[in-house]
From TrEMBL:
InterPro entries: Aminopeptidase_N-like_N, Aminopeptidase_N-like_N_sf, PepN_Ig-like_sf, Peptidase_M1, Peptidase_M1_dom, Peptidase_M1_pepN, Peptidase_M1_pepN_C, Peptidase_M1_pepN_C_sf
Keyword Zinc: yes
The name this protein goes by in its record: Aminopeptidase N
Domain Peptidase M1 alanyl aminopeptidase Ig-like fold per the UniProt entry, residue ranges: 445-547
Listed EC numbers: 3.4.11.2
Domain Peptidase M1 membrane alanine aminopeptidase: 226-437
Lineage: superkingdom: Bacteria
Cofactor(s) recorded in Swiss-Prot or TrEMBL: Zn(2+)
Length: 874
């Protein structure tokens, strides 16, 4: 496919004001009658041809203002419909197309999932339903009539408000939905099928009554209550936190079992991957509950940031996604623990976005060119996009940020906007020039900030010298300094934070220093002896911090920093250093050695803390992938695995008694509740058992077996099973078999079972994965199953995917090639597992390259896979 460039944007030559659709559902031959009210766009070229997009469409008929078109007046193919000389006035175009929802394995456009008709139109799926100007700056008012056999599809849902429904001859029925809010076609949706419903109601702050519905597979209604509860809380929160009120009389959510992503924010009719709707104590973990809450909120929040204000073009994707991720992170922080949420988000950012930003797929938050837009729903657009908004708020302050958001909602409502439109609101509200800040949207790569500190005991001054640099990324070799807000404080051995007075007599407001040059320095005065600088508090910018701190200073921060994020960070840094040193030792054929400092401090934390969720985060040592990223080059995943195992075993032994006490102290009785405090207790208890077992399997395995057998909730059951899975032997195999049998009829739970086994860091795992592909519940045509087994193996089993013999790479390449014919989006995502290939040691690098070249050489690759493999090899 030819590259699409931001600089080439121009408005359409025609506008579409209203769309009237009549969809006659049929499993293999659904007919869509579309009536489009079209007019020339005053901002476009007069007299231009009208070129409508299509994708795998069959045209049945086309008419203009009710009359047939002359054969030479138009040209149609599955991928487009062109009217050579349309009228230079408003006109009506009637188009009938026919599609086959059952054969639609790409899960874009109209398809069937377990017999339920549903749609996915973002980014370019509407063109698989009817010919259209399929781009987000074409906004229209939609009326949708859906007709189906009543026995096959008793429930018929569309965007907007329900208008009419009724019976038809021959067992058919219909429903009409009208959405009064102009929207781009990527927000169009319909659903038809046999579905169970859990309902609710909410009255908005201006008194609008809204009927809420969560639709799921019949029989699973009891698992939909938490999603409904999360929806109600999201609606309330958005009114209170952002002044955003819902704007229709109905809001529906439908869970389907075949979905390429997490969920979709279609206007008034969100469609969800059922993994992010269905939850019961016996089948969902605390992490599942938290993810459901976050994704329900995220899709709901899109109603304002994405739907009412949409994107002018797909380059502006971060306008809706970065902002909406920021909003859902704030929601979860308010509903749960803010520091723990921040730690979890930063962990995910580093694991996904930092990895992306340092490899061949790196791109700016707002890319300037793409070949396949589906490949740009990335951690950079979403998570780094959210970090940019967070920095904006830090820099201009919460009041100006709120004023900027209010202005944005007011000024841009009903429009298809750009990042420039968005930033202009904040520049105006704050009176600040944001032109330098806007570089965050254009420049790819993770900046590094190096800090040197010098304390003068006589003058009682502390000088901090900062220097920033950003490594080159594909297509951007030269980098400029960005605006980096650095929140900081000073921590003394006694733990008191000293005031931050600058040399010119000011107090550093909110502890904020802004680094916007390549190098700059800050001198603080009246600093008591021995301060430890606590920098980048709360992870105030998405950068790598290089700060020379010794073990004693790290322990001071870990024990005494008033900023919980930096307490956690100090522990992570300490553990990371131990592991990096252990990797070096192992590669030099030496046994790794550890000092006691980290394990002792951990024991102290366990004895003193009542913030269980925070302590659990501290105990989750940096992952193998984190260590690999820290090493950066010539990575030997086996050495990383063994170094991490050795540290976990050492800590487990050193703090064994404290871990055992913690485990028994946190035992709970009473019914399961997914609230944050209860989840925190469980997470710490399971983390304690995990480390205890790492240090002394003889002590831990019987405890894990007992917990596995007696658990009344999935968190504790899978927690125990995950621990057992790390230790080869009959205990593991028996527990895995029992779990597989017990949940044989529950695909979402089996996904956890597939994933656990795919993550086992042993040489036999690849064969185990191959064997599991023959399990009756496994299917490559279901994205959740494929991600659970193949995706976990490739993305979350560092040592086995990167086997020295290259068998892991060959397996993934086979999977990608096999999937590319049926579901290219899924295939391309899996292929992303190769994104770090150049940072491996030479032998593995060569093996990875061989497999990438094998994929690249295949004829007829989809644009999705072709784009990823080309960029990966560039
Ligand atoms: N805005 C939604 C993106 C999405 C998507 C994109 C491409 C292919 C399939 C898709 N399903 C959903 C989800 C969101 O960010 O809210
Ligand atoms: Zn989103």
């Amino acid at each position: 496919a030819a590259p699409v460039r931001l600089e080439d944007y121009r408005p359409t030559d025609y506008l579409i004001d209203t769309v009237s659709l009549d969809v006659r559902l049929h499993p293999t031959a659904t007919r869509i009658l579309a009536e489009l009210a079209i007019r020339p766009n005053p901002a476009g070229r007069a007299g231009a041809a009208l070129e409508l997009d299509g994708d795998e469409l069959e045209l049945v008929s086309v008419a203009l203002d009710g009359g047939a078109l002359a054969p030479g007046a138009y040209e149609a193919s599955p991928s487009g419909l062109t009217l050579h000389a349309p009228p230079e006035r408003a006109f009506r175009l009637s188009i009938e197309t026919r599609v086959n929802p059952t054969a639609n394995t790409k899960l874009m456009g109209l398809y069937r999932s377990s017999g339920v008709y549903c749609t996915q139109c973002e980014a370019e799926g509407f063109r698989r339903i009817t010919y259209f100007l399929d781009r987000p700056d074409v906004m229209a008012v939609y009326t949708t009539r859906i007709e189906a056999e009543e026995a096959e599809a008793p429930v018929l849902l569309g965007n907007g408000d329900p208008v009419e429904r009724g019976a038809l001859p021959n067992g058919r029925h219909y429903a009409v939905w009208r959405d009064p809010h102009p929207k781009p076609c990527y927000l169009f949706a319909l659903v038809g099928g046999k579905l169970g419903r859990v309902g609710g109601e909410i009255v908005t702050r201006s008194g609008r009554k809204v009927e809420l519905g969560v639709y799921v597979e019949p029989g699973k209604e009891s698992r939909a209550g938490y999603a409904l509860d999360a929806l109600v809380r999201s609606m309330r929160w958005d009114e209170q936190a952002f002044g955003c009120e819902y704007d229709l009389s109905v809001f529906n959510i439908v869970a389907v079992s075949d979905f390429n992503m997490g969920a979709m924010e279609n206007k008034g009719l969100n469609i969800f991957n059922d993994k992010y709707v269905l939850a019961s104590p016996e089948t969902a973990t605390d992490a599942d509950y938290a993810a459901i809450e976050a994704i329900i909120a995220h899709e709901y929040f899109h109603n304002w940031t994405g739907n009412r204000i949409t994107c002018r073009d797909w380059f502006q994707l971060c306008l809706k996604e970065g902002l909406t991720v920021f909003r859902d992170q704030e929601f979860s922080s308010d509903e749960r623990s803010r520091p723990v949420k921040r730690i979890a988000d930063v962990r995910a950012l580093r694991a996904q976005q930092f990895a992306e930003d340092s490899g061949p797929l790196a791109h700016p938050v707002r890319p300037s060119v793409y070949r396949e837009i589906n490949n740009f729903y990335t951690a950079t657009v979403y998570e780094k996009g959210a970090e940019v908004i967070r920095m904006l708020k830090t820099l201009i302050g919460p009041e100006a940020f709120k004023a900027g958001m209010d202005l944005y909602f007011h000024r841009c409502d009903g429009t298809a906007a750009t990042i420039e439109d968005f930033l202009a609101c904040f520049a105006e509200a704050s009176g600040r020039d944001l032109s330098h800040f806007s570089l965050w949207y254009r420049q790819a790569g993770t900046p590094s900030v190096a800090v040197r500190t010098a304390y003068d005991a006589e003058d009682r001054t502390l000088r901090l010298d900062f220097a920033q640099s950003t490594p080159p990324t594909p297509g951007q070799t030269e980098k400029e300094p960005v605006v980096i807000p650095i929140r900081l404080g000073l921590v003394s051995a006694q733990g008191r934070g000293a005031p931050l007075k600058t040399a010119d007599g000011r107090t550093l407001e909110d502890g904020l220093f802004v680094l916007d040059k390549t190098a700059d320095s800050l001198t603080l005065i009246e600093v008591p002896a021995d301060p430890v600088p606590s920098l980048l508090r709360g992870f105030s910018a998405p950068v790598r911090l290089e700060q020379e701190l010794g073990p004693a200073e790290l322990l001071t921060l870990f024990r005494r920093d008033e900023d919980p994020f930096n307490r956690w960070q100090a522990a992570q840094t300490y553990a990371m250093r131990l592991m990096v040193r252990a990797v070096e030792a192992l590669r030099a054929q030496q046994p790794p050695e550890f000092d006691q400092g980290f394990a002792v401090a951990l024991g102290e934390l366990l004895a003193a803390t009542d913030d269980h969720a925070f302590a659990a985060q501290v105990m989750a040592l940096p992952s193998e992938a984190d260590v690999a990223r820290e090493l950066g080059r010539e990575i030997d995943p086996d050495a990383v695995l063994h170094a991490r195992k050795a540290l976990r075993s050492f800590v487990g032994q050193t703090a064994g008694d404290r871990l055992a006490q913690t485990y028994s102290r946190l035992e709970t009785t009473g019914p399961y509740s997914p609230d944050a405090a209860s989840a925190g207790r469980r997470s710490l208890r399971n983390a304690a058992l995990d480390l205890l077992t790492a240090g002394d399997p003889g002590r831990g395995i019987p405890l894990a077996q007992a917990q596995f057998a007696s658990a009344d909730n999935m968190t504790d059951q899978i927690g125990a099973l995950a621990i057992l899975a790390q230790h080869p032997g009959p205990a593991r195999e028996e527990a895995l078999a029992a779990f597989g049998e017990h949940f044989a009829a529950d695909p979402l739970v089996l996904d956890k079972w597939f994933g656990l086994q795919a993550a086992i860091p042993e040489a036999a795992t690849l064969d185990r994965v191959r064997g599991l592909m023959r399990h009756p519940a496994f299917s490559l045509s279901n994205p959740n199953r494929t991600r659970a087994l193949v995706g976990t193996f490739a993305m979350a089993n560092l040592s086995q995917f990167h086997r020295a013999d290259g068998a892991g790479y060959a397996f993934l390449a086979d999977m990608v090639l096999q999937l590319d014919g049926s579901n290219p989006q899924l295939a391309a995502r899996l292929l992303g597992a190769f994104r770090t290939w150049r940072s491996l040691e030479q032998g593995r690098r060569a093996q990875a390259e061989t497999q990438l070249r094998r994929v690249a050489a295949k004829e007829g690759l989809s644009p999705d896979v072709s784009d990823i493999v080309t960029r990966s090899l560039a």
